[in-house]
Model the fold of this input.
Amino acid sequence: MNDCLFCGITGGKVKGNIVYQDDSVVAFKDIKPRAPVHILIIPRKHIPTLLDLEPADGPLIGAIFFAAAKLAQEHGIAENGYRIVVNCGADAGQTVFHLHYHLLGGRHMGWPPG
Done:
């Protein structure tokens, strides 16, 4: 996707504050953090929304959650707890249509969200 912001970050054409990357996943700090730790975790593969996942993407989603757990440990939020959020579609608040997971922590979070 030539006009996808997150594809630009994974491809190195757009600068992002990258905190983790491997062959399938890239993670970077959110530019408008909603918690002391707010990291976006994205697949390198362009997938617009959760609705666009295919069965073959299962290992990729697993890699995203392994990266989230690793980042939670590295950023000191694993012990007290953290939240992982995925917005799917405009009504849910998705503004960049490249599947991404928000890793949030470092403060108490209320329930219900939103």
